[in-house]
Each structure stands twice: as C-alpha cells, then as structure tokens.
Peptidase S54 rhomboid domain-containing protein (Steroidobacter agaridevorans), 297 residues
Amino acid sequence: MTPEDAPSNLVEVFRSLRMPDCDQQTLILSAVGIHSWTVVRGGVFVVVVPEESAALAIRHLTEVAQEARAPVPIAKPPKLQPRAWTGSILYVLVMMAVAYAAGIDALGFDWLEAGVLHGAIPTTHEWWRVITALTLHADVGHLLSNLAFGTVFGFLASRALGGGVAWAGILIGAMMGNGLDAIVMPTEQRSLGASTAVFAALGILSAYAWSLETQSNLRWAKRLGPLIAGVILLGFLGAGGERTDVTAHVTGFFSGCLLGVALGKIPERRFDSPALQLAAGAFTIAAIAAAWLFAMR
C-alpha cells in the first residue's frame, strides 16, 4: 500500500532524522501485521499508522526497543579460593619423596614392582595400585613433566574449589581413570605416572567451568567453550609419545569431567568451609599412605 492509498486518520508512532531508522520500524510493524507508512513532517521522517492500530504499534515498538537495550548476560566467574598453592606444594613433595624412595629402594623394598598398575588387577584384586601407580615415574623427564602440568592444573582447580576438595577430586578421578584403564588393558601391560591425575584435574576444571556456564543465559557455543578447550588440551598433551598410555589419559579426563559436573551442582559457598577443605585434604593424604601400606604388606 502506497502513502497515497493510506487512510486519512493516521497517527505518528515514531520519528527520526534518518530514513533507515523509519524503514526498520515499518519492517517491525509489518511483521506483526500492522500497516505503516513513512512520511516527511517538519523536516523529519515520521512513521504513521491508522488510528485504531496506534496503541498496539506503540506497545510493540516499545517492547522491541527494550529487548534491544537489554544487557548482554555475562557469566559469573567462580569465586577464587585462598591458599591454592598449598595442595600443589604437597603434590610436588609427595611425588619427589616417592621418586627418591623408589630410586634407592628405600626400606629394601621394590617400589616399582609393588606399586605399578597392570592389567592383572581385576584378577589379583590389588586395587591399591590405582593410587600407588600415580606416584611412580619411569624417569626424571617423566616425573618433571607431570610435576609441571599437575602443579598448574591442580593450582587452577584449587582456586575454584579450594585445595582440599580439588586434590581429593583429582585423586578420586585418577583412581577411577586408572581403574578403568586396568580393566581394559592387556594382562601383561604396565602403566605408571601421575598423568592420569593431571588429566583428571583438566577434566574437573573443564566440566566445572562448563557447569557454571550452563547456569547462565549465554549462547550454547559459549557455554560449551570450557569443555571444547579441555578436549583440545587432551588431544594436544595426551596423545603423543610411543610409551604414552593414551587410555589412562582419556579415562582420567572422562572421570574428571564426571566429578566436575557433580561438583558444579554444589553451591559455591560450601567450598568456603575450612573444615571441609581440611577433611578433604586429610582424606587425600591418608588414601595415598594407606595404598602404600597395602603395597608393602
């Protein structure tokens, strides 16, 4: 319908110095079935509608304008917990202590033979090996690599969850990962090293961040960002090397993701409890000590 065909009882609902602004408003109105025209009045462009449609047109244009001005939702960052380095320092000390003890056969004990993970565990039921194997390494390079990545990922997890909860989660995720690895690996295969724990930490970080993102109104691509980043790091860090136990890396990451989702369901204020952090940290140390006591029997 042209302006010449428009009815005489027209009411102004929008005006602007720019014609494109008026074109946008007429397009919005046409989408809801309201006829409108753009005319020039007093040197400005004016959108007019029939008098009986004026109230509906104004309400609809107002709603659209309010939606356009709505702030873009921003994901709430996780609360950062204090003393996050404490767990990483203890991690380094435990790994170094076991490496030294294994290197000198402390107590006249073959640490590698007693603590390594192997595929016969489902038959022998030596399930303590899912923990002891985490503290053993093939050589100095293997140890230093896991110390570097484990310290960083453990620190980041501790910043989000607190040192005690983070390292307890990392240990549990690594135990689950090693347990799954032992079930599927050949009987004669052996595996050792903290890399399963490293990737469990990465899985916890990725899934916990994703869990927080899902509680926001961000687009799905933005919400999936932490998980996608975790998978990329898994592929980059966990798939190389002839002696690499890729299965342990994948199962560790997957187990960590499950724990990260579960931890994401817990209100963040719960992690502020010193008693909870202390209890979780004590459990982690006690579990490692108990596993080695079983191995030394």
